[in-house]
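Document type: protein sequence-to-structure record

Subject area: structural biology

Format: plain text, a pair of labelled lines:
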Amino acid sequence: MTETASGPARGSRAKGGKAGNKGLHIERIHTTPGMHPYDEVSWERRDVVMTNWRDGSVNFEQRGVEFPDFWSVNAVNIVTSKYFRGAVGTPQRETGLKQLIDRIVKTYRKAGEDHRYFASPADAEIFEHELAYALLHQIFSFNSPVWFNVGTPQPQQVSACFILAVDDSMESILDWYKEEGMIFKGGSGAGLNLSRIRSSKELLSSGGNASGPVSFMRGADASAGTIKSGGATRRAAKMVVLDVDHPDIEDFIQTKVSEEEKIRVLRDAGFDMDLGGDDIASVQYQNANNSVRVNDEFMQAVEDGGKFGLRARMTGEVIEEVDAKALFRKIAEAAWACADPGIQYDGTINNWHTCPESGRITASNPCSEYMHLDNTSCNLASLNLMKFLKDDGKGNQSFEAERFQKVVELVITAMDISICFADFPTQKIGENTRAFRQLGIGYANLGALLMATGHAYDSDGGRALAGAITSLMTGTAYRRSAELAAVVGPYDGYARNADAHQRVMKQHADANGTAVQMDDLDSPVWAAATEAWQDVLRIGEKNGFRNSQASVLAPTGTIGLAMSCDTTGVEPDLALVKFKKLVGGGSMQIVNGTVPQALRRLGYQEEQIEAIVAHIADNGNVIDAPGLKPAHYEVFDCAMGERAISPMGHVRMMAAIQPWISGAISKTVNMPETATVEEVEEIYYEAWKLGVKALAIYRDNCKVGQPLSAKKKEEEKAEITEKAEDTIRTAVEKVVEYRPVRKRLPKGRPGITTSFTVGGAEGYMTANSYPDDGLGEVFLKMSKQGSTLAGMMDAFSIAVSVGLQYGVPLETYVSKFTNMRFEPAGMTDDPDVRMAQSIVDYIFRRLALDFLPFETRSALGIHSAEERQRHLETGSYEPADEEVDVEGLAQSAPRAQELKAVATPKAESEAAKPAPQQAHTSAELVEMQLGIQADAPLCFSCGTKMQRAGSCYICEGCGSTSGCS
């Protein structure tokens, strides 16, 4: 894939650019001659102490760090804990933002000078100062690997996104395992397409049947799981793609559906699913996102109701014909059931491919925003769109298109320089990335910008403004790339792909020319974008291009928080009320600052705005807000709440900006639990028609192991209320014949205190007994968790203790609460219970082991490590010198009765759970106001509720992510 070496600098300075034969002339944007950006701001010292919400234990502490006084507490905490290098408490530890920014911008400046990017030392200095100013003022951010690695003694990896390749040979498959493992070890993610591997329906050269790609996925999944369990706190970020015409496509579609169901059935049936147990090895494919790559031929067959051929990998001949619509239905059914597979549209992706002569685009990175050649990588940077909104506070607004373009030029220049000094995880990735120089400029805060300007996210006006900004960004990026080609040469593969690259540039320009302008905000941006694309065509034809790709839209999780963005990537706002940390400790609940801006833009007076904001603060929504016109409700629609944006609203936004994104868009379309398979089909079909490149859906509560809940539907509420009233009436009418008596424990009582860890969450359990034996009370103390879990555990332990004292048998609790699934879940530090599906699951397994006789807990499928080892050696859990009390076993827990008892509370365990009583993040605040639980796990680092960012999750409290850099 590697092309010839870069040619000499050619061309001259072009209209609208700064390129010349001797280097770039860098223009000042924000800085003042003779003054360093650091000298223009006020600095202060802060103490960064990040604690667990419940017990106050310290996760991270560094005191006296230096930051500008306008940086938020959250941004300071995240940058200090995530990006400062050096061991805490040592002289090598960075102590302020100046050191961090200098480490990066000075490295970029030196590399730019070494590779002759600048016309003079003065231009290099302006570049350094402008880059420092933009980072200092949170105007943009590089992706996390730049903050981690640049300017340090360790390898200077700058890329966050990787695509690998695998061929139909055992050597290539084993290389895949190794390369993927090295990328996971470094905390990054990778994707690849397995379609070159022959199917299980084809023959090997030896005459036997091939294993097929699905079988090799097992090995890669096990490898990812092993590396994760070797110390990482988040799952491996991994994407596996298979073409829709692969003969094993149906097996691929069903992999995760079958495994999710297997987890449910085996645990509910009492099988030993602990780590190291007899049955855990049968659960596979849990460490990857899966996507089906569909082509236009297949989608046309779905539309026409025709047949579609599955093709042999070696010969290309059709070996089986299937009903296209039925296969498409299976894809939708699987996604409905467990959120996998996602879908990638091969025809659309490769129609916008700038380098088809060097190979097709077959795969993506784990979050699906980077799509280019195999064995390549992409470094990302994202702009904070709210920094370019000019607002006089009286409703007069404009988007600063000219300044936006200058910042894009600056950032693209820096991103291209980084490839000159960057390190890469494999030689192939390094060679190909240097040959094609893929960049991924993008943005964050789109949702906040649209609301602040009075645009509904799901509206023609909102989509027009988003499209205009996206077009201007990518057009400006490619124009700068063409100018760079005149200075340091085009990318190595350009000569071979010149015609295709120019064709794609014309497609972007044509799409810009046919775009619809809506109002005074987007029209000037469209005009600037039109000029930029004209320059791209003209300058690019003369100079070529320095970069084969310019833009993507990434999740912007951690970096979005570091820039104090209200919204990530292309996402809408989570809710109208936010949780804000305060300097010196404490927090407060505030209405989004974008709300008053939007109301002024819509023409409301200050008195009206004050009343509407007060209503939102009390209710969390705008419904029935005093003086607010119902026609304006849609402007304040959010990702969650009474007026949540519809799934198709998200798809339409993706379609509105896709024509001006070189790569794709990281986004998951959330659907309510009540969504149907037909609605999933519609989403996947309409996304293809609208020209989206890739898409995934998530239906609330579809995953077995996810602690999710949606707000109760009105009819469900009515049904529950009616049942409760019937119960009360029955209790009143009946004559009470028996009432249990509470048997309290004496003042002095024997007890056992056990410390435990479940999925990174620490806790203590004290179990006290009656003097004449028998468990009488349980106390649970949680740490490393948020207030919701710890508070509920306190209340839960009291309820269980009272029940025990009223005579409820312990085995009843054990049968009801083991196998219950919710986060935190995972590995424990208890050799007898190595894996738990929840805190509750662990607690009652431990109590059963400590207080129930062998016969009773054996019938419940609960055994100690010693007993499991004995079973492996002798085939029996039972000690050799003991006899099983068959009569007692039958009386305590008959197998059929226990299976029924375990299955009965399943619906109860998956029912909606109460919202937290105290919020510690914006996500928890939304839960508390709306009476729901957000569709997200708890953070393993600090225990708070995470929130969605693109196709992964981000913790607002500490900046940790669920798998995407």
